[in-house]
Amino acid sequence: MSAPIGSTVLGYPRIGPRRELKKALESYWAGTSSADDLQTVASEIRAGTRTDLSALDSQPTGTFSFYDQVADVTALLDAVPPRFRPDGRRSGSALDEYFAMARGTETAPPMEMTKWFDTNYHYLVPEIGPDTTFRLAEKTPVDLYREAVDGGVRNGRPAIVGPVSYLLLAKAADGAPEGFDPVSRLDDVVAVYAELLGELAAAGAGWVQFDESAFVQDRSEAELDALRRAYERLTSVSTRPSILTVFSYGDPGPALDVIARTDVEGVALDLVTAPDLVDRVPSTTGLRDKTLVAGVVDGRNVWRTDLPRVLSRAATVLGGVAELAVSSSCSLLHVPYDVSVEDALEPTVTARLAFAREKVAEVALLGRALTQEGSDDLRRAVVDASTNQRAAVDETVRARVAAVESADRSRSAYDVRRKAQAAELGLPDLATTTIGSFPQTPDVRRARADFAAGRLDGADYTKRMQDEIERVVRLQEDLGLDVLVHGEPERNDMVQYFADTLPGFATTKLGWVQSYGSRCVRPPILHGDVSRPEPITVEWAQYAQSLTPKPMKGMLTGPVTILAWSFVRDDQPLGVTADQVALALRDEIADLEDAGIRIIQVDEAALRELLPPRRSDWGAYLDWAVGSFRLATGGAADETQIHTHLCYSEFGDVIDAIDGLDADVTTIEAARSRMEILADLEKVGYARGVGPGVYDIHSPRVPTRDEIAALIAEAQRAVPDDRLWINPDCGLKTRGYAEVEPTLRAMVEAAVEARNS
Ligand code: GLN
Ligand code: ZN
């Protein structure tokens, strides 16, 4: 028997409390430090993690990654796509090959990146074909386990993405036959995992943790059967550690029954996302004989746990299983390191927060309280560790949300709006525009940083931004665009910018979380009722409009995207919070209208990102998501043209919701997918303006005018000219003027030509 898991977490941040890994990676990639330097930083981060986790009964090992835990398995299995081995074998070091997969080389584009469930983390999508060979190429999990033991960890548990989820998260390699399913390679992959189990046992590991979270998404019978087969095979390995199968980010549904009937020794459940799972525990055949790791501390949000409540819930399953352990609901990868370094937050907010370190303390305390039941001291400690601080209430905001009626979420019929807007704006067919941001030059960034640091005073800063706006407006006039933008020089980030000014949000100093590889984000914390005491964007928009007779687009970020890229309070339904943000935006729209802005774009870049893992939950989500957008925009006058922008082309499933936003114009990514989206829109009867991107801004390539013309022609086949807009795929912020200027010029020329032919 392996030692009990007791209190644990399923994973830990690995970027370093001060983003040490980010800095080390970037300097290694830039060639200014050596692989040894990088390894030194990495082992220091791992040592820090071991210390941070030392209060727990057991800890995961190997949750460190140089880039991504899915890419780690690709390297482990040697399933490196052949384009990274043009000569059929690895050319440089294993580490450099790994970074080549993540970042690409001159000859090989990087592996595709996609979102890890409904979090803001992105993984590298494995590419699996019929010919992919799998072998245990390296023993990193074994090495990292040994390192942990040497570092004093007694109850370490190697943590690895599970074999079935690895394949379910993969895509068919280029050149695989039509319909090829990576899961068809399961037996070969499981054979390597079986070998690894033997190695881990030999190294002394008592437990191993396999993340099978792909089963919180809808899965077919065949996929469930793959899960059964994989774990029957793995549990039959003669000398092996106990196996903990992890389901995070949702409800594993039927996969729980499948895994419970196998001989795995432990199952971890996410009781934060799926609290009702508790009720299934007693009736799930096979679970009674296992260790149940109850994920009761939220691994992906920043709020303190209601420990007494969790404790009493945990106690109800205590008798139902062989052994109960307590844990985070998922890896703590999704939260920052440490609240205690945040000295600029309101104490009433700080008192409600728990980042990774604080969550570890919560789990440790829960573990002790569960095992040493009856100890008064402990019970008191549990109560003391819980916060009685609540979100500050803004009665005005509450009353306003309560008074929202369904009429507030709708505008006049589109036909009425269309006529009013045509009269007001007088735009040509195939009107040209951009998505909002223009390239952010070092100068602009420096001015923002200087202003933030107090090195530039308000008047100077305003002047610098106005100069930039003027430059961008003149450029657009010169290019001949029909609808202009101010270029967003004053915005660091499309969410942070709004969060910085709206009451109800807080910004951290060091609250970084990994988005992918070395890339980190610092999500604002939406902690209280949101209001908008004064205009945010109006002055800039008004100034920009004053420079030109052409219509200037006001530029806002929508409620869903603001929520998606923040840590959001969990003490009320998300829909209520979204409506509060929507009302703030509604006021901003009214003020923009008053200032003479006739076109307003409300970006919903993240609409798709918050889709829950299971389809049965989509309807409820889309209801509040679409409802909040409509509340934000529902007060706009008929003559005001509302645009929205969505960042990707795979909308298939949410196309009705996009139609439901009822925007007058929807701009959308389409250049790479060659306008496929238009047919989908047509199918649901979308009959308003649409601007499929004709310039792929994710690539530094400058497309030719002919290429753009071909895309326009393709779009014209699906959409009549008077509803078709011509624009890039997304904002131009990350590109340089050397690419942007010629491309926009070509785009406008191609549009004018198409218009006149
Ligand atoms: N208006 C924003 C910009 O142009 C939109 C960015 C986005 O969609 N991600 O930068
Ligand atoms: Zn976009």
UniProtKB/TrEMBL annotation:
Residues 430-751 form the Cobalamin-independent methionine synthase MetE C-terminal/archaeal domain. Binds 1 zinc ion per subunit. Zn(2+) binds at H645, C647, E669, C730. Its EC number is 2.1.1.14. L-methionine binds at I435, G436, S437, E488, D603. Transmembrane segments: none annotated. GO terms for molecular function: 5-methyltetrahydropteroyltriglutamate-homocysteine S-methyltransferase activity. Residues 7-316 form the Cobalamin-independent methionine synthase MetE N-terminal domain. It catalyses: 5-methyltetrahydropteroyltri-L-glutamate + L-homocysteine = tetrahydropteroyltri-L-glutamate + L-methionine. InterPro entries: Cbl-indep_Met_Synth_N, Cobalamin-indep_Met_synthase, Met_Synth_C/arc, UROD/MetE-like_sf. 5-methyltetrahydropteroyltri-L-glutamate binds at R19, E20, L21, K22, K115, R519, C520, W565, E609. Its cofactor is Zn(2+). Keywords: Amino-acid biosynthesis, Metal-binding, Methionine biosynthesis, Methyltransferase, Repeat, Transferase, Zinc. Coiled coil: none annotated. Pathway: Amino-acid biosynthesis; L-methionine biosynthesis via de novo pathway; L-methionine from L-homocysteine (MetE route): step 1/1. The active site is at H698. Catalyzes the transfer of a methyl group from 5-methyltetrahydrofolate to homocysteine resulting in methionine formation. Belongs to the vitamin-B12 independent methionine synthase family. This is 5-methyltetrahydropteroyltriglutamate--homocysteine methyltransferase. It comes from Actinomycetospora termitidis.
